[in-house]
Structures are given as structure tokens and as C-alpha cells.
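Office hours follow-up: a student asked to see two folded examples consecutively, so here they are.
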Amino acid sequence: MPHGTAGGGEDGPVDCAEALSRLFEFLDQEVDESQGDRIRQHLADCEPCLAEYDVEDHLKKLIRRSCTEAAPSELHVRIRQQLTVLRTQVRER
């Protein structure tokens, strides 16, 4: 399928706009098998969309790796206290 070609509905090919709009769902495996196959086919045929997929996939992996450390419990307490103070200030306005 040529880059940017409009899709043909639910069973037809995916176009660039649809592939990119569903990219995060695809990366998170939140699309059904049929939709995933259609997006995979588009990525195989469309280098610009594949490049975008690669960037987003790499970013997601970096974030996942960076988020393996938990914040100290003292920080959680301080954040909750500050949120309580902010909520109180907003209610008083």
C-alpha cells in the first residue's frame, strides 16, 4: 500500500492517519488482533510510519526503564501533604 493511501474501512488497509492515531494503543497491545494485523501491515509498507513507531517504542522503553525505581515513602507523604494544602487553598477562594 502506498504511503498515505486512505484505508478501506474496518477490514481494509490502514492509512497513515489511522495508523499514527492508534499507535499508542498498538504499542500497549490494546487493539484487537485484526486491527493489530492491519497496523502491522501498514508499518511494514510505510517507512515514515515505521520510523514514528520506532521512536515511540524506544521512548516507551526508556520511560519503563526509568520508572523501575520507586520514590521514597517520605516523598509520597510530602506530596500528599502539599496536595491537601493546595486543595484547601482552592476551596477557600
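And the second, which I mentioned at the end of office hours:
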Amino acid sequence: MTFVYLIQLNEKYRTAANWAPQDHTVVAQHFNFLKELYGNGTVSFVGKTGLSIDHPHNTGIAFFEADSLESAELLMQQDPAVQAGLMELRVLPFEVILPHKNQ
């Protein structure tokens, strides 16, 4: 099954002054987590909105495969940014209607 992973900064981190050096390390770990899932084929697409960190609709997005909603949520709960409380996520089932065209 395909799922979409929507992740946003928690409100505290929408202000740059609230970031500590270790928060930047967590974001790097978050990126590596998604990169590993992309590399092993679990995640097929990763991106984010082009909005500033203080914008309430600033959102990261990933499309991935899992056997069930429960297993999808368990997988994405392993994201270091979620575990550190830096970001919050939503995992939703996703139905592809028009697939991405190869360029």
C-alpha cells in the first residue's frame, strides 16, 4: 500500500531563535533516515514546500510503501526529528490517480 508522510516543525521550532545546535544535528539525522529509506526502495519520493520555517504550512512530504497503516505509522515514528520532538507527522493512505511521468 502507498502512504503519504506529512511532517511539520513543531510550533516552537518555527522561530529560528529557538534552534539549538543539536537541533540542526537532528535535522541531519532526519534527512539521513529518509535517504536510507529512499535508498532501500521503501520511500519513492521526498520533497518539501518552499515556504519559510515560520510559515504554518511549511511541510515535508514523502511517499512510501508499507503493508498497513499501522506499520506505516510505526516506521515513520522512527524518524529522529519526530522522536526528538522537533517535528510532528501525519501518515495517510494515498491512492495514486495519475502516476508521475518519466522525463
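Two things to take away from it. The helical segments are 21-39, 69-76, 80-83. The chain has a mean pLDDT of 94.
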